[in-house]
# Entry
Amino acid sequence: MVTEHERNPGMRLDLDWVTGTQVNRSAVERRTATLPTRRSVKKTWQAAWLLRAVTCIDLTTLAGDDSPGRVRRLCAKARYPLRPDLLKALGAEALTITTGAVCVYPAMVPYAVEALEGTQIPVASVATGFPTGLTPMPQRIAEIKQAVADGAREIDIVITRHHVLTGNWPALYAEIQQFRAACGNAHMKTILGVGDLATLQQIYRASMVAMMAGADFIKTSTGKEAVNATLENSLVMVRAARDYLERTGYKIGFKPAGGIQTAKQALAWQFLMKEELGNDWLKPDLFRFGASSLLTDLERQLSHYVTGRYAARHHMPMG
Amino acid sequence: MEFNEVFETMAYGPAPESPAAVNQWLDDHQRKFGLFINNTWVTSEGADYYPSHNPATGEKLAETMQAGQLEVNAAVAAARKAYKTWSQTPGVVRARYMYAIARNIQKHHRLLAVLESMDNGKPIRESRDIDVPLLARHFYYHAGWAQLMEKELRDYQSVGVISQIIPWNFPLLMLAWKIAPAIALGNTVVLKPASYTRLSALLFAEVVAESGLPPGVVNVVTGSSKAGSMLVEHPDVDKIAFTGSTDVGRILRRQTAGTGKKISLELGGKSPFLVFDDADLDGAIEGVVDAIWFNQGQVCCAGSRLLVQENIADDFLTRLKARMNKLRVGDPLDKSIDMGAIVHQSQWDTVDEWVKIGAAEGGDVYHAQVDLPKQGCFYPPTLITGLDPAAEIMQEEIFGPVLVSTTFRSPSEAIALANNTRYGLAASVWSDNINLALDVASKIKAGSIWVNSTNLFDAASGFGGYRESGFGREGGEEGLYEYLRPTWQARPQPAEEFDPQSEWGGAIPAHPVLPEGKHSISAPGVDRTPKMYIGGAQKRPDGAYTRAVLDSKGQVIGQVGDGNRKDIRNAVEAAHAAHTAKPGWAMRHGYNRAQILYFIAENLQARADEFVARLRAMTGQTEKTARAEVEKSIDRLFTYAAWADKYGGSVQETTLRGITVGVNGPVGVIGIACPDEYPLLGFISLMAPAIARGNTVVMIPSQKYPLSATDFYQVLDTSDVPGGVVNIVTGDRDHLTKTLMAHEDVDALWYFGTAAGSYHVEHESAVNMKRTWTNYGQPRDWLNDEQSAGHDFLHHATQVKNIWVPTGM
# Structure
């Protein structure tokens, strides 16, 4: 990951700040309902935005049947996310387009690292008892350390959801601090598991605690909960990141994950980032999509832009 | 811009909606339109035409005809002819037509939306996602009322031919609010769109005709304000519905005074937007965007007056300015903008003039740091801070993208500031404390209150104002009554012409009247001279004049005080004090008001014989008829005791997730001039519904036979009626009415006297747009429950406030 900004060192846990902000769901929904209708990009602009989205994908496989071969195939797609003819037609050959990262289970890290050798593409590993986070603390710490030792440059940790549900902010803060320490130089994305957190208010609070404890990114969900990334929970997290920036000066990245499958959805999130935070949050050092099938749809839409014809899924090489 | 450059800068580019279909439609009409009468285009030799421009580009889109008297007459005649059959068409059949119109609107959704944006300058997002969907929604909703009318509204009939005059800010939506309820209920209409924005109404007329609506039911006449006046004054028009400025509304109220035409007015506003320190501040910021930068701020209910709690004001305004700089202003047909063009250069000039005034008044003017198109009528989103209520721009409607703001310290101060306005159209209240938010909502005097939201509209919820924001509601069941008349009642058509300059209501105080006939030899009884009844106490008349009360044979049977303007002034003050007392009359439970009304009835019953005797002595009527009047009076008190806790309002079935509550609130202080017929029953039939629904009243009893009313205050005194709820001022009815109708702190005036009096009441009440209810000199049968105890009385005694409360976890 290319880092142009100073890494968030975290700060002391300030509970007044954590609990002092109100989040009203209907107001949030009013904003998210019109965000995608207030903005639109067409033609050249749309193509450029979609290509930018490609570079922000954490191309992900997190399944029980993952194998070294599957991971290698994914890594190949991460290196060459677009068909060469499309890149050429876009005039984007010189841009070295890759996805933002490849995201795998800890045991798959060595295979991914090997497959991505010679590229700038970081390997991201989920850790800390993904997806529920309910394994003993020493094992969770060990999991992070092992993944980092195996070459993962980004660690997607999960939090203990019941600390949020019970409002035990000191425990949540302490846990994330330990994870951050274990990550060392690897960047830490803190998965809140928003689908488990019950209310938008709690999502805001958990986001704030995570940033105070040193998260580099805050991430919505594992993809395994019943509710994953929505524009609503994303808006709340993004606003928390903005509040944190305003008070501390540190830029926190954001990663929506789970359920983002279409180019149209991707654009909605890009509008959200640009409108609520700014252009810096459209690039991979501060913005990622946790997604697997999104890339194919982006590729198809870019193909449509190039050819003027709607594209077939099977014309896009599989990852 | 090059692909690689956009990839780097991640800029927005143009995202235009195509105007091709609209241009084709305009071309097919040779960009020249006549009037739409009887489902066909009508032109006249030598007619004048007026150009329609796209305010974003200055491009001339088309020209439309200026209707004159002949054309107005033709349109009204077409509507009248169609009314004969349309009003007799069964509701279930009208429902089919309404449904066909609703469907056809949806079929032409995009064409309507694009034309609306081109003609008006509003963003295509708004016309596409808000205006046109609501247009269809209104026809669907009212299709339902057409279907149900004969069963659910059986005490009502249609009104007749309606003249409808609409503004330029929401040409299609305002048209929907006007036309849909009118034709659903069996009326026919002549609609005049605003001069700047005539085209979408003409396209709509074609959409309606295509759907198969019979000729003459909907007619569209374009023209200047002169044509508007002709439509208002046309004798064959039964009702005027107007949306526009308060100044024009006042003129129309005066033009129609005394004619018996119904009128509903949706006028201006300076609606408050309150932000408490426990609100979702980012949510409230977006609320502000929707409140004042929706439709370039050209919204009658725009949240144009920001009131922020002092402890968060700096933070809030900083965030707001940052948000303003993210707004995009540009071509209305661009799908990537937040704000389009101001409708016309003259409106732009008006807005700019107000901003200059604001700066001169010491306001700190902040224009959003955004790019504006080089050409066209664009104005940047603007915030003016540091103002006090005394500043003119804190009080006057700007009707543009300009927000003014000030701060408050406490909820009660917030309410006081919110209500410190001559308007009362809407308000937005932001707090995550439900207790606080709903209490504040209940205390703001406005027709629509949005909690943690703003500018929400739906056909199932009535829209309309308090105070000088007008009267009448559009939408919801409450809006239907603007297009209905009680079944028993024909339209009053006073034959006389009246002159506002004419002497009316002048009075010379009375003097002694000598008894006629033989002098009685018995010793005189103890003198008993009724006084005024003000603030729960008997008061001598301010002027210290007394008038004799004569019986039907001309014999003096008593005396009453001869009231003057100061007695009225004192009575109005007392009526207000009864509202501000703790608990105020309107704040008491309906249960409590019901108990008091029952108690009044009980005490009247106990003294029934005395009241019978008094009625007989005054009017010379028989024991039987006098007793019938007293008995019916007691019955009326029971009726409104019953209604005291059964007319609170309803849950409105809007599209909001959450609760929309239509509250039947009190009107406030009502002046009531009582009829001479049925001196007791008339008085009670008017007083009881008013106070049952939480109003306080200034009663002017029958001038001829006032003694039943003055006897009655002793009943009030013994019935736990709080002081000031009912005030009684005796004297010359019209003279006293004259003071009431000009009084700026009286909210409504009911007048049951002469046709001339009705004219003057309607004419002069326009001073503060007070609601009026007059009888045009036509007596009603006060013993008849249908005429004199109907829903109509409750309707006049209340005004609907819709409180929108979105919900969510």
Observations:
- The first helix of chain A runs from residue 15 to 19.
- Chain A touches chain B at residues 21-31, 34, 37-45, 47-49, 51-52, 90-92, 95, 198-200, 239, 270, 274-275, 279, 282 (CB under 8 Å).
